[in-house]
Amino acid sequence: MNRVTLILAFTALPAVAGEPDALALERLVRQDCGSCHGLTLKGGLGPDIRPAALSHYKTDTLKAVILDGIPGTPMPPWRPLLSDSEAGWIAEYLLTGESP
Ligand code: HEC
């Protein structure tokens, strides 16, 4: 590998600017997810999605539920609004109860 290839390989890594915006996502979870799952996420129209209630989920499975929703239920797919990494951030946030 020459020097140019090396530089290109490094610039292909995710840029800091492309990382999920924690504040905006936290707000989205409280407001948008909260409109169905309750302001404190302990349940409403949708079930409790606090960490203890989701402990059987792996991060990737939870991310898929967020991106694709649960067909046949009011749980909508968020793919049109969230990137893969943003959904991953939310999955981690829901599982741990903290900003990842
Ligand atoms: C329009 C209402 C609505 C909104 C908005 C909504 N959900 Fe849901 N969600 C539901 C319902 C209803 C279910 C239960 C579906 C079922 O019967 O399995 C659900 C299920 C889930 C589950 C599966 C829970 C479990 O115990 O398996 C997760 C995780 C979840 N929602 C996360 C989210 C997240 C994260 C957001 C915001 C990005 C969100 N939901 C927004 C209605 C909603």
Automatic annotation (TrEMBL):
Keyword Signal in annotation: yes
Gene Ontology molecular-function annotations: electron transfer activity; heme binding; metal ion binding
Signal peptide: 1-17
Domain of life: Bacteria
InterPro entries documented for this protein: Cyt_c-like_dom, Cyt_c-like_dom_sf
Residues annotated as domain Cytochrome c: 20-98
Transmembrane segments: none
Keywords: Heme, Iron, Metal-binding, Signal
Cited Pfam families: Cytochrome_CBB3
SUPFAM superfamilies: Cytochrome c
Listed name of the protein: Cytochrome c-551
Organism: Roseovarius litorisediminis
